[in-house]
Amino acid sequence: MPMSDIEIAREAKMLPIADIGAKLDIPQEALVQYGPDKAKINYDFIKKQNRKPDGKLILVTAVTPTPAGEGKTTTTVGLGDGLNKIGKKAAICIREPSLGPCFGMKGGAAGGGYAQVVPMEDINLHFTGDFHAIGIAHNLLSALIDNHIYWGNKLAIDSRRITWKRVVDMNDRALRQINANLGGIANGFPREDGFDITVASEIMAIFCLATDLKDLTKRVGNIVIGYTRERKPIRARDLKADGPISVLLKDALMPNLVQTLENNPAFIHGGPFANIAHGCNSVMATTTALKLADYVVTEAGFGADLGAEKFFDIKCRKAGLTPAATVIVATVRALKMHGGVAKDALGKENVKAVKDGCSNLARHIKNVKSFGVPVVVAINQFSADTAKELKMVRDTAKKLGAEAIVASHWADGSEGTIDLAKHVVKLCAKKSKFKTLYPDNMALVEKIETVAKKLYGAKEVIIDGKAMTMLKDFEKNGFGKFPICMAKTQYSFSTDPNAKGAPSGHSINVREVRLSAGAEFIVVVTGEIMTMPGLPRIPSADSIMLNKNGQVEGLF
Predict the structure, then answer these.
(1) pLDDT beyond 60 at 515
(2) Is 95 a residue of the active site?
(3) DSSP 3-state assignment of 150?
(4) What's the pLDDT tens digit per position in 119-151?
(5) Is 453 a known active-site residue?
(6) Which domains does the chain have, with CATH numbers?
(7) How far apart are CA 248 and CA 390, in angstroms?
């Protein structure tokens, strides 16, 4: 019987983190160690790398997610190992896992099989404490708002127009809407409030887009927490919150360095969700890695319609990054589901279902190519895949001018991604023609329509009256040049999670818009998407425990 992911991780022969740093020419004194196998890289060393040229940036994205699994993080790790295997100096950059999904339905997020990052349990549980720092920093601002109102409300904050919620890094639907400050005069003025999950926090978004501590402080100060009765915006700096919040985040903002099972460098830092935030690891980690490695493999959350679009239109736009290549991960199993096959029937050969499901892959290829970035498809191989099914995927990709390469990294580690790695190097040798989907000066409504029609295949966008008024107000107040961050279900190009394949001609309903003035984007909430998920009927937490040896069981 094959070993489980967690058993494979426990068998890992990890090197001291100083040895991993040495592979990127990071001296030991530049590492702030968290035990023998985790470290942060200090600011002084990062600053000294600024004059170095950048390596090649490779994005790993995927087809639209299904319960069959796609393996985007696994492929990111496997490709990084594969590039090192063929003699390239490569590093990977991925996000930190959220405790919400770990204990909810998704489980851990550290790769799988023989393409993992380690120490796996640590990475999935608390890690270096970054998320705790982000959650506390966010809630400090919440506390300062209510405290300011309690002590006289000099800024004349309208408690009905406070837009800043509290956060917790757990799926807890009971906290979506609450009444705060109950219990009498001593506890403040009662008002409605609510919680988002930490990974949906604007502090998280700022953390992942900030270029240094100075930029972090500026962005935090720019946060709009609410409005006066005259609709004048109140910023975090008006409450003198930018200083103490930056203090809470000063250590967390240093990028984290760990290793893969094959002892290659891995940066794991930041973790905004991709359906309700921008879904990319931190700019600090990515830009640092680009100065230290010749090839940097990073990922963006969920399918390319969400993660890749936001990586290009938000992260690359704001950080001045130019991606050299994109890898779209697909599995035969996932494509069968997009072709109408139920999960319990995926083990049977069904070339027609693969062909039908390839409509989803085809749209993602076209979409990514519209950004001017070369594309390769990585077929994350499962043992039940047949030659005819694999050929169908290759043929579909070839018709659209992209190679589809079988990768067996889950079972074989770097040996299973050698062909993929070699092809990625060829793509990176070409001159990138990267461009964003829309210009800064396009109207916000037009930006929303551009994403919905060009990438999602929608016929129209229907915007709620209140949301439309807010979009106009945002433009009037100088926020019109911000990119948009679409909050949409990850399971479909439409807002209906059950619409598989490549639906078109549908309507995108915008029910809410939120200003993220510090992160410098506008969140556009569509369909039934929520910024505080709930736990499923049978959460992963039911199976997580300590065994008789004190080891974690059931996490992954």
Answers:
(1) yes
(2) yes
(3) helix
(4) 988 999 999 999 999 999 999 999 999 999 999
(5) no
(6) 5-129+252-428 (3.40.50.300), 131-249 (3.30.1510.10), 444-526 (3.10.410.10)
(7) 50
